[in-house]
Amino acid sequence: MQDTTWDLNPKFDFRDEHGVRRGKKVSLAKIPTEFEGPFSGKEHGVAFKENAIDEIRDLQYQMFTEAKQSLLIVLQAPDAAGKDGLIRKVLGQMNPQGCRTYPFKVPSSEELAHDFLWRIHKATPAAGKVSIFNRSHYEDVLVVRVEDIVPKSVWGQRYEIINDFEKLLAHRGTRILKFYLHISPAEQLERFKKRLDDPTKHWKLNAGDYEARLKADLYREAYEDVFEKCNFRHAPWYIIPADKKWYRDASVAAIVRDTFREMNPQLPPVDADLDEIRRLYQRELGKQ
Ligand code: ATP
Ligand code: MG
User: Per CATH, is 5-286 categorized as 3.40.640.10?
Assistant: First the structure.
Protein backbone atom coordinates (compact mmCIF):
# COMPACT_ATOMS: atom_id res chain seq x y z
CA MET A 1 0.00 0.00 0.00
CA GLN A 2 1.25 3.46 -0.93
CA ASP A 3 1.10 5.68 2.13
CA THR A 4 2.33 8.90 0.51
CA THR A 5 -0.33 11.39 -0.52
CA TRP A 6 0.66 12.86 -3.84
CA ASP A 7 -0.35 16.35 -4.88
CA LEU A 8 -2.66 15.56 -7.78
CA ASN A 9 -3.24 19.23 -8.59
CA PRO A 10 0.25 20.73 -8.72
CA LYS A 11 0.41 24.38 -9.78
CA PHE A 12 1.97 23.75 -13.14
CA ASP A 13 0.68 24.78 -16.55
CA PHE A 14 1.58 21.90 -18.86
CA ARG A 15 0.17 23.64 -21.91
CA ASP A 16 2.26 26.70 -21.28
CA GLU A 17 5.37 24.65 -20.53
CA HIS A 18 5.21 22.44 -23.63
CA GLY A 19 3.22 24.56 -26.09
CA VAL A 20 5.22 25.81 -29.05
CA ARG A 21 5.39 29.64 -29.11
CA ARG A 22 3.46 30.97 -32.08
CA GLY A 23 5.36 32.27 -35.07
CA LYS A 24 8.72 31.36 -33.51
CA LYS A 25 11.33 29.06 -34.94
CA VAL A 26 11.85 26.11 -32.61
CA SER A 27 15.25 24.57 -32.17
CA LEU A 28 14.43 20.98 -31.24
CA ALA A 29 18.02 20.32 -30.17
CA LYS A 30 17.58 22.87 -27.38
CA ILE A 31 14.44 21.30 -25.96
CA PRO A 32 15.07 18.66 -23.29
CA THR A 33 13.94 15.11 -23.92
CA GLU A 34 14.11 14.33 -20.21
CA PHE A 35 11.98 16.27 -17.77
CA GLU A 36 10.06 15.69 -14.56
CA GLY A 37 7.92 18.83 -14.36
CA PRO A 38 6.21 19.28 -10.99
CA PHE A 39 6.54 15.62 -10.05
CA SER A 40 8.75 14.15 -7.35
CA GLY A 41 9.28 11.01 -9.42
CA LYS A 42 7.62 8.19 -11.28
CA GLU A 43 5.06 7.20 -8.64
CA HIS A 44 3.86 10.77 -8.33
CA GLY A 45 3.54 11.07 -12.13
CA VAL A 46 1.64 7.81 -12.40
CA ALA A 47 -0.79 8.78 -9.61
CA PHE A 48 -1.36 12.14 -11.30
CA LYS A 49 -1.94 10.45 -14.65
CA GLU A 50 -4.51 8.01 -13.23
CA ASN A 51 -6.39 10.90 -11.64
CA ALA A 52 -6.29 12.93 -14.87
CA ILE A 53 -7.58 9.95 -16.87
CA ASP A 54 -10.59 9.62 -14.54
CA GLU A 55 -11.47 13.24 -15.20
CA ILE A 56 -10.87 12.87 -18.95
CA ARG A 57 -13.33 9.97 -19.00
CA ASP A 58 -15.99 12.06 -17.23
CA LEU A 59 -15.51 15.01 -19.55
CA GLN A 60 -15.47 12.76 -22.62
CA TYR A 61 -18.81 11.34 -21.47
CA GLN A 62 -20.21 14.84 -21.18
CA MET A 63 -18.95 15.80 -24.63
CA PHE A 64 -20.46 12.62 -26.07
CA THR A 65 -23.87 13.38 -24.59
CA GLU A 66 -23.65 17.05 -25.55
CA ALA A 67 -22.89 16.00 -29.16
CA LYS A 68 -21.75 19.44 -30.29
CA GLN A 69 -17.98 19.71 -29.99
CA SER A 70 -15.33 17.17 -30.90
CA LEU A 71 -11.64 16.56 -30.24
CA LEU A 72 -8.86 15.58 -32.62
CA ILE A 73 -5.55 14.40 -31.17
CA VAL A 74 -2.62 14.19 -33.58
CA LEU A 75 0.46 12.16 -32.63
CA GLN A 76 3.75 12.53 -34.46
CA ALA A 77 7.11 11.17 -33.39
CA PRO A 78 10.29 9.44 -34.45
CA ASP A 79 10.16 5.64 -34.30
CA ALA A 80 9.98 4.10 -30.85
CA ALA A 81 9.17 7.44 -29.21
CA GLY A 82 6.06 5.85 -27.74
CA LYS A 83 2.95 6.70 -29.74
CA ASP A 84 1.64 3.18 -29.20
CA GLY A 85 2.36 3.22 -25.47
CA LEU A 86 0.70 6.60 -25.05
CA ILE A 87 -2.40 5.35 -26.83
CA ARG A 88 -2.48 2.15 -24.79
CA LYS A 89 -1.90 3.78 -21.41
CA VAL A 90 -3.65 7.14 -21.71
CA LEU A 91 -5.68 8.03 -24.78
CA GLY A 92 -7.10 4.53 -25.26
CA GLN A 93 -8.62 4.77 -21.79
CA MET A 94 -11.46 6.86 -23.16
CA ASN A 95 -14.78 5.19 -23.84
CA PRO A 96 -14.47 3.43 -27.22
CA GLN A 97 -18.09 4.32 -28.01
CA GLY A 98 -16.94 7.86 -28.60
CA CYS A 99 -13.27 7.50 -29.42
CA ARG A 100 -11.34 5.92 -32.27
CA THR A 101 -7.69 5.62 -33.25
CA TYR A 102 -6.60 5.88 -36.86
CA PRO A 103 -3.07 4.82 -37.85
CA PHE A 104 -1.81 6.42 -41.07
CA LYS A 105 0.68 4.28 -42.91
CA VAL A 106 2.21 4.51 -46.39
CA PRO A 107 -0.79 5.54 -48.55
CA SER A 108 -2.52 2.89 -50.66
CA SER A 109 -2.82 3.33 -54.43
CA GLU A 110 -6.43 4.43 -53.97
CA GLU A 111 -5.36 7.02 -51.38
CA LEU A 112 -2.55 8.23 -53.65
CA ALA A 113 -5.08 8.71 -56.45
CA HIS A 114 -6.75 11.41 -54.31
CA ASP A 115 -5.58 14.60 -52.65
CA PHE A 116 -3.46 14.03 -49.53
CA LEU A 117 -6.24 15.07 -47.15
CA TRP A 118 -8.85 12.68 -48.57
CA ARG A 119 -8.05 9.80 -46.21
CA ILE A 120 -7.54 12.22 -43.32
CA HIS A 121 -10.82 14.09 -43.61
CA LYS A 122 -12.80 10.85 -43.44
CA ALA A 123 -11.22 10.08 -40.06
CA THR A 124 -11.95 13.43 -38.38
CA PRO A 125 -14.29 13.25 -35.38
CA ALA A 126 -18.04 13.78 -35.69
CA ALA A 127 -19.80 15.94 -33.08
CA GLY A 128 -19.36 14.41 -29.62
CA LYS A 129 -16.49 12.15 -30.70
CA VAL A 130 -12.71 11.93 -30.30
CA SER A 131 -10.30 10.87 -33.06
CA ILE A 132 -6.70 9.94 -32.33
CA PHE A 133 -4.33 10.09 -35.28
CA ASN A 134 -1.32 7.79 -35.00
CA ARG A 135 0.71 9.73 -37.59
CA SER A 136 -1.30 12.09 -39.72
CA HIS A 137 -1.47 14.55 -42.61
CA TYR A 138 1.83 15.93 -41.29
CA GLU A 139 3.61 12.92 -42.82
CA ASP A 140 2.89 14.65 -46.13
CA VAL A 141 5.34 17.41 -45.19
CA LEU A 142 7.70 15.20 -43.16
CA VAL A 143 8.57 11.78 -44.61
CA VAL A 144 7.37 12.94 -48.02
CA ARG A 145 9.76 15.90 -47.86
CA VAL A 146 12.74 14.06 -46.39
CA GLU A 147 12.39 11.10 -48.77
CA ASP A 148 11.76 13.37 -51.74
CA ILE A 149 8.54 11.53 -52.60
CA VAL A 150 7.10 14.61 -54.27
CA PRO A 151 9.00 17.77 -55.34
CA LYS A 152 9.32 20.82 -53.10
CA SER A 153 6.93 22.71 -55.38
CA VAL A 154 4.24 20.27 -54.21
CA TRP A 155 5.01 19.72 -50.50
CA GLY A 156 5.87 23.39 -50.08
CA GLN A 157 2.25 24.34 -50.73
CA ARG A 158 0.88 21.88 -48.23
CA TYR A 159 1.48 23.91 -45.06
CA GLU A 160 -1.10 26.44 -46.13
CA ILE A 161 -3.51 23.72 -47.24
CA ILE A 162 -3.10 22.02 -43.84
CA ASN A 163 -3.74 25.30 -42.05
CA ASP A 164 -6.91 25.91 -44.05
CA PHE A 165 -8.05 22.35 -43.38
CA GLU A 166 -7.50 22.62 -39.62
CA LYS A 167 -9.29 25.97 -39.64
CA LEU A 168 -12.25 24.31 -41.31
CA LEU A 169 -12.34 21.63 -38.60
CA ALA A 170 -12.10 24.25 -35.85
CA HIS A 171 -14.92 26.21 -37.49
CA ARG A 172 -17.10 23.11 -37.17
CA GLY A 173 -16.36 22.82 -33.42
CA THR A 174 -13.38 20.47 -33.42
CA ARG A 175 -10.56 21.18 -30.99
CA ILE A 176 -7.21 20.01 -32.29
CA LEU A 177 -4.22 19.02 -30.15
CA LYS A 178 -0.96 18.08 -31.83
CA PHE A 179 1.74 16.24 -29.89
CA TYR A 180 5.33 15.63 -30.89
CA LEU A 181 7.00 13.00 -28.69
CA HIS A 182 10.57 14.13 -28.28
CA ILE A 183 13.18 11.46 -27.49
CA SER A 184 16.96 11.52 -27.56
CA PRO A 185 18.88 9.46 -30.13
CA ALA A 186 20.43 7.46 -27.26
CA GLU A 187 17.03 6.59 -25.77
CA GLN A 188 15.75 5.64 -29.22
CA LEU A 189 18.68 3.26 -29.73
CA GLU A 190 18.07 1.76 -26.29
CA ARG A 191 14.45 1.07 -27.28
CA PHE A 192 15.54 -0.45 -30.60
CA LYS A 193 17.76 -2.78 -28.56
CA LYS A 194 14.85 -3.79 -26.34
CA ARG A 195 12.87 -4.63 -29.48
CA LEU A 196 15.75 -6.80 -30.68
CA ASP A 197 15.94 -8.57 -27.34
CA ASP A 198 12.20 -9.25 -27.09
CA PRO A 199 10.78 -11.81 -29.55
CA THR A 200 7.24 -10.41 -29.03
CA LYS A 201 8.51 -7.11 -30.45
CA HIS A 202 10.38 -8.56 -33.44
CA TRP A 203 7.43 -7.85 -35.71
CA LYS A 204 8.13 -4.14 -35.16
CA LEU A 205 11.72 -4.34 -36.41
CA ASN A 206 12.27 -2.38 -39.55
CA ALA A 207 15.54 -1.51 -41.30
CA GLY A 208 13.86 1.75 -42.36
CA ASP A 209 13.97 2.92 -38.73
CA TYR A 210 17.77 2.87 -38.90
CA GLU A 211 17.70 4.69 -42.25
CA ALA A 212 15.60 7.43 -40.64
CA ARG A 213 18.30 7.85 -37.95
CA LEU A 214 20.81 8.68 -40.68
CA LYS A 215 18.43 11.42 -41.80
CA ALA A 216 17.71 12.72 -38.31
CA ASP A 217 18.90 16.24 -39.20
CA LEU A 218 16.57 16.42 -42.18
CA TYR A 219 13.64 15.21 -40.06
CA ARG A 220 14.51 17.75 -37.40
CA GLU A 221 14.44 20.56 -39.98
CA ALA A 222 11.16 19.31 -41.40
CA TYR A 223 9.58 19.19 -37.93
CA GLU A 224 10.90 22.64 -37.06
CA ASP A 225 9.22 24.04 -40.17
CA VAL A 226 5.94 22.38 -39.21
CA PHE A 227 6.10 23.88 -35.71
CA GLU A 228 6.71 27.32 -37.16
CA LYS A 229 4.19 27.23 -40.00
CA CYS A 230 1.29 25.18 -38.64
CA ASN A 231 0.82 26.27 -35.04
CA PHE A 232 -2.31 28.17 -34.09
CA ARG A 233 -4.47 28.79 -31.07
CA HIS A 234 -7.16 26.45 -32.40
CA ALA A 235 -4.59 23.79 -33.38
CA PRO A 236 -1.47 24.09 -31.20
CA TRP A 237 1.65 21.94 -31.17
CA TYR A 238 3.07 20.53 -27.95
CA ILE A 239 6.58 19.13 -27.74
CA ILE A 240 6.57 16.45 -25.06
CA PRO A 241 9.82 15.29 -23.40
CA ALA A 242 9.38 11.55 -23.92
CA ASP A 243 12.54 9.83 -22.67
CA LYS A 244 10.66 9.07 -19.44
CA LYS A 245 7.52 7.22 -20.42
CA TRP A 246 5.71 8.14 -17.21
CA TYR A 247 6.29 11.87 -17.81
CA ARG A 248 5.15 11.56 -21.43
CA ASP A 249 1.92 9.92 -20.24
CA ALA A 250 1.29 12.32 -17.35
CA SER A 251 1.91 15.49 -19.35
CA VAL A 252 -0.24 14.45 -22.31
CA ALA A 253 -3.02 13.41 -19.90
CA ALA A 254 -2.76 16.85 -18.25
CA ILE A 255 -2.98 18.70 -21.56
CA VAL A 256 -5.95 16.65 -22.78
CA ARG A 257 -7.68 17.14 -19.41
CA ASP A 258 -7.07 20.90 -19.38
CA THR A 259 -8.35 21.20 -22.94
CA PHE A 260 -11.51 19.25 -22.11
CA ARG A 261 -12.01 21.50 -19.06
CA GLU A 262 -11.77 24.54 -21.30
CA MET A 263 -14.23 23.03 -23.81
CA ASN A 264 -16.56 22.66 -20.84
CA PRO A 265 -18.99 20.16 -22.39
CA GLN A 266 -22.44 20.11 -20.82
CA LEU A 267 -24.90 17.29 -20.30
CA PRO A 268 -27.88 17.93 -22.60
CA PRO A 269 -31.03 19.54 -21.19
CA VAL A 270 -33.58 17.09 -19.80
CA ASP A 271 -36.56 16.64 -22.10
CA ALA A 272 -38.44 14.07 -20.04
CA ASP A 273 -40.95 15.09 -17.37
CA LEU A 274 -39.08 13.87 -14.29
CA ASP A 275 -42.17 13.94 -12.03
CA GLU A 276 -44.01 11.78 -14.54
CA ILE A 277 -41.07 9.35 -14.83
CA ARG A 278 -40.89 9.10 -11.01
CA ARG A 279 -44.64 8.41 -10.92
CA LEU A 280 -44.25 5.63 -13.53
CA TYR A 281 -41.37 4.19 -11.57
CA GLN A 282 -43.42 4.13 -8.35
CA ARG A 283 -46.27 2.44 -10.23
CA GLU A 284 -43.97 -0.34 -11.44
CA LEU A 285 -42.41 -0.66 -7.99
CA GLY A 286 -45.86 -1.11 -6.53
CA LYS A 287 -46.45 -4.11 -8.82
CA GLN A 288 -43.40 -6.04 -7.53
P1 ATP B 1 6.11 2.14 -34.87
O2 ATP B 1 6.59 3.36 -34.15
O3 ATP B 1 5.54 1.14 -33.91
O4 ATP B 1 7.12 1.59 -35.81
P5 ATP B 1 4.77 3.42 -37.07
O6 ATP B 1 3.77 4.51 -36.92
O7 ATP B 1 6.16 3.83 -37.45
O8 ATP B 1 4.83 2.60 -35.73
P9 ATP B 1 4.92 1.69 -39.28
O10 ATP B 1 3.98 0.73 -39.88
O11 ATP B 1 6.27 1.25 -38.83
O12 ATP B 1 4.18 2.43 -38.10
O13 ATP B 1 5.20 2.86 -40.29
C14 ATP B 1 4.28 3.57 -41.00
C15 ATP B 1 5.07 4.29 -42.06
O16 ATP B 1 4.19 4.96 -42.93
C17 ATP B 1 5.99 5.35 -41.48
O18 ATP B 1 7.30 5.10 -41.90
C19 ATP B 1 5.46 6.62 -42.07
O20 ATP B 1 6.48 7.57 -42.32
C21 ATP B 1 4.81 6.13 -43.33
N22 ATP B 1 3.80 7.08 -43.83
C23 ATP B 1 2.72 7.56 -43.19
N24 ATP B 1 2.08 8.47 -43.96
C25 ATP B 1 2.77 8.56 -45.11
C26 ATP B 1 2.60 9.32 -46.29
N27 ATP B 1 1.61 10.18 -46.42
N28 ATP B 1 3.50 9.14 -47.28
C29 ATP B 1 4.51 8.27 -47.14
N30 ATP B 1 4.73 7.53 -46.06
C31 ATP B 1 3.87 7.66 -45.04
MG1 MG C 1 7.75 2.39 -37.65
Answer: no
Q: How buried is 279 (Cβ within 10 angstroms: 0-12 exposed, 13-18 middle, 19+ buried)?
A: exposed
User: How far apart (Å, rounded) are the C-alpha atoms in residues 202 and 5?
Assistant: 40
For the CA of 103, the nearest atom of ligand 1:
6
Q: Whose CA is nearest to atom 7 of ligand 1?
A: 79
244 touches 34 (CB < 8 A): yes
The confidence score (pLDDT) of residue 23 equals 85
Mutate which of 135, 187, 188, 202 to test ligand 1's pocket (most atoms within 8 Å of Cβ)? Answer: 135
CA 187 → CA 190, 191, 278, distances in Å?
Answer: 5, 6, 60
pTM, rounded to two decimals: 0.96
Which atom of ligand 1 is found nearest the CA of 142?
20
